[in-house]
Amino acid sequence: MAKVVNYISEAFEELKSNVTWPAWAEVQRLTIVVAVFSVLFALATWGVDEMFAKALEGFFNWLKA
What we know:
Elements lengths: L1 H16 L6 H41 L1
């Protein structure tokens, strides 16, 4: 248990003293960029899913006829 506590303590010390954190304005800007790309990727995935669903529906309707 002492090893785990020591590891966590050293990890927090590393985060406080050796990590360079970005400025708050940059964090906000990058968060918006990630959100926009996430929405675009979700819309692209939805579009491809709809396209394949319609293609499969057409294929199976063609088989039934």
